[in-house]
Amino acid sequence: MQDITGLSLSDKSEIAEYIKRDNLEIVNSKITQANVKDSFYTRYVKRVLDIIISLIALIVVAPINIVIAVVTFFDVGSPIIFKQKRTGKDEKKFTIYKFRNMTNDVDANGELLPPSQRVTKWGKFVRKTSLDELLNFVSILNGSMSIIGPRPLLDYYADRLNDRHKALYKVRPGLECPTLKKVDHALSWQERLDNYVWYAENCSFIVDVKLCFRVVQLALDRKETARRSKAGNGGMLGYDEDGNIIYTKLVPDKYVEEYCKNHGFANLQEALEARNEQKND
After folding, report:
1. How far is it, in rounded angstroms, from Cα 223 to Cα 235?
2. In angstroms, rounded to a whole number, what is the distance separating the alpha carbons of residues 252 and 241?
3. Residue 233 C-alpha from the chain's centroid
4. What are the CA-CA distances from residue 143 to residues 46, 138, 159, 163 (Å)?
5. pLDDT tens digits, residue range 232-273?
6. Distance from C-alpha of 154 to C-alpha of 88, rounded to nearest angstrom
7. What is the pLDDT, as a whole number, of residue 272?
8. Residues 167 and 201 sit within 8 Å (Cβ to Cβ)
9. What does the domain layout of the chain look like in residue ranges?
10. Nearest to 76 by CA among 98, 105, 96, 97
């Protein structure tokens, strides 16, 4: 297993295509399709509640958003809003909005510094307290998101998911979708995606109420917040033939070797060095 974190997004996407080519069809032939919940609540009531709650929330947090906007302006400058495309219900693209918490500092070659070096002290605070998420109530009000639902994924993940995990696109993405019961570790990609599918299959008013309480519980749990910020094996690249998720930090040697061979590199280290040289040119 090898760690390809240092490769560019396009390089990682290329390796993800190798994995998809070899395994996705096999995985889809073995899985059980999700039975997404379809009820009066999921069709109508949930959306009405989202509108009411998001309207109230936007009014209540307006003074907080103004303060955050002012501090963000003096902290990282303009623009103060960070925009990013995500994939929502029925795989439709939408834009999420957050307050910026990184500078645009670059190195001697004009390249942006790593995110960990660009996050400001204020940025770390708003991330830790989730204050940068308050603007998501705008996406809830316009129908792109819901209060409770699977966290919206970046657009390139859609093609990597198996048919069962794609059930998460049958419901609106949400601010948060915790597990119903408390766990003592940060969820892996496998656990997160399985939980999203569970939600799609079991969504109800009672479930949403219980999960809202879980969100509050998580927000007040400092240990849980710390675990979630430090955990992970990187991005999700796809599945092995047994349906286990392959991560950017744990990629089977054969896919790294194929990538290196296709680009004329002797090994991953040489590939990483070449990519770094290209950045510095």
Report:
1. 23
2. 12
3. 13
4. 11, 9, 24, 24
5. 668 899 999 999 999 999 999 999 999 999 989 988 888 888
6. 9
7. 84
8. yes
9. 1-30+251-281, 33-233
10. 105
Strand ordering across the sheet containing 81-87: 93-99, 81-87, 153-154
In angstroms, the CA 241 to CA 25 distance is 9
C-alpha closest to that of 85 among 139, 15, 4: 139
Residues 6+ apart with CB under 8 A from 7: 15, 271, 272, 275
How would you label 31-62 residue by residue, b for 16+ Cβ within 10 Å and e otherwise?
eeebebbeeebbeeebeebbeebbeebbeeee
Q: What pLDDT does residue 186 have?
A: 80
Label residue 42 by pLDDT band (50, 70, 90): very high
- How far apart CA 236 and CA 250 sit, in angstroms, is 10
Q: Which residues pair with 83 in a beta bridge?
A: 97
pLDDT in tens, 159-194: 999 999 999 999 999 999 999 888 777 888 999 999
Q: What is the pLDDT of residue 98?
A: 87
User: For the CA atoms of the chain, what is the radius of gyration?
Assistant: 20
Instruction: Give yes or no for a contact between 109 and 280, defined as CB atoms under 8 angstroms apart.
Output: yes
Task: Give the tokens for residue 243.
Answer: 């349906």
